[in-house]
């Protein structure tokens, strides 16, 4: 732009020189024409100077705009770089978002599956609770039979304790089923003999007396002494069997006869020592004391050793309880015992 201005001024100077040469001509222009030319010259000069100033100002503005443009371009480059980074982040986040959505869908499906399983477990728990409630409902008959078993065990333990107190050296135990007192035959009887030895008859006599003390609370008859304190479960004894047993030595006939003879010998010794023991009756008004003989049929241990055979030669005092088939039977027993109690 500066070169153009200089060129323009050069042209103006040439024009001025031309006009000056014309003034030296004899045919010079008039004063007015001269003044007009001068005025035009000054006007063009002023215009040139004004345009130069405008050009300089515009060139300065152009330089300022260029600097602003460079700054803006730099900012654009920076923003484009930042945009690239953010787009990369967005791409990464989009992938993560898609993966998260897939994971969310998977977890929601798993949650639904687990909720279904939870509902199934709730149903199973409720079913088991109902079963427990049913099991916890007390069956009157089962409860009564449990009381019968417990009462029998207590009676046998009481008898065993009394006999042991009277005869500390005597071997007497409860059966495995806790339904009988078991006396080892060796010592009660001579070998091969059905008769009680003289020094052991006292044991049987004492057993009868102890039995007579226990039976009144669990039997009927004139000797009954029922009381709810001694028999809170209202249980009743059906039979007290004196059972004779032998080992397997000898013939079957001999052993059976021997076991029966020993059971009968014990029975008569007991009834002789305590005659009133036969007054104790069951629900059918039958004497509860009875005998049974099993020979070698019911060993409690092996007969292969002398000790085993001695254990199998024994007398068992087995308690058989009245076991009703339904709650009506329980009520019959209760009424029978209560009637005895009222008569006392």
Tell me what the structure shows.
This protein is of the alpha+beta class and 344 residues long. The protein has two domains: 47 residues; 204 residues, OmpA-like domain (60s Ribosomal Protein L30, Chain: A). The chain is built from seven helices and five strands; from the N terminus they run αααββαβαβαβα. A five-stranded mixed sheet has the order 1-2-5-3-4. The longest helix is centred in the first third of the chain and has 106 residues.
Based on the model shown, name its key terms.
344 residues; alpha+beta; 60s Ribosomal Protein L30, Chain: A; 2 domains; 5-stranded mixed sheet; 7 helices; 5 strands; 62% helix; 9% strand
> What is the averaged pLDDT score?
86
* CATH C-level of the largest domain: Alpha Beta
Q: Tell me the structural class.
A: alpha+beta
Tell me the strand order in the biggest sheet.
Answer: 1-2-5-3-4
Order of helices and strands: HHHEEHEHEHEH
Rg, please?
Answer: 66 Å
User: How many alpha or pi helices?
Assistant: 7
């Amino acid at each position: 732009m500066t070169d153009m201005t200089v060129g323009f001024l050069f042209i103006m100077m040439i024009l001025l020189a031309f006009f000056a040469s014309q003034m030296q001509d004899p045919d010079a222009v008039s004063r007015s024409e001269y003044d007009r030319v001068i005025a035009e010259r000054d006007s063009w000069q002023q215009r040139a100077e004004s345009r130069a100033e405008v050009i300089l100002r515009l060139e300065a503005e152009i330089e300022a705009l260029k600097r602003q443009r460079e700054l803006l371009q730099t900012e654009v480059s920076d923003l484009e770089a930042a945009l690239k980074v953010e787009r990369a982040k967005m791409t990464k986040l989009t992938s993560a978002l898609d993966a998260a959505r897939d994971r969310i869908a998977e977890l929601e499906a798993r949650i639904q599956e687990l909720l279904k399983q939870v509902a199934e477990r709730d149903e199973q728990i409720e079913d088991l609770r109902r079963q427990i409630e049913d099991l916890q409902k007390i069956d009157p008959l089962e409860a009564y039979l449990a009381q019968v078993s417990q009462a029998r065990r207590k009676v046998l333990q009481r008898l065993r304790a009394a006999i042991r107190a009277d005869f500390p050296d005597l071997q007497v135990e409860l059966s495995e089923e806790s339904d009988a007192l078991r006396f080892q035959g060796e010592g009660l009887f001579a070998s091969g003999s059905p008769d009680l030895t003289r020094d052991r008859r006292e044991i049987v006599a004492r057993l009868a007396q102890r039995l007579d003390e226990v039976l009144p609370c669990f039997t009927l008859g004139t000797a009954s002494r029922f009381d709810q304190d001694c028999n809170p479960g209202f249980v009743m004894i059906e039979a007290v069997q004196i059972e004779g047993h032998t080992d397997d030595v000898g013939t079957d006939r001999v052993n059976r006869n021997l076991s029966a003879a020993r059971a009968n010998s014990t029975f008569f010794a007991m009834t002789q020592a305590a005659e009133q023991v036969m007054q104790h009756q069951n629900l059918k008004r039958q004497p509860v004391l009875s005998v049974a003989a099993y020979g070698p049929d019911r060993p409690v241990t092996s007969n292969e050793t002398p000790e085993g055979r001695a254990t199998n030669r024994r007398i068992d005092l087995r308690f058989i309880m009245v076991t009703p088939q339904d709650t009506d039977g329980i009520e019959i027993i209760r009424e029978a015992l209560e009637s005895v109690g009222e008569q006392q």
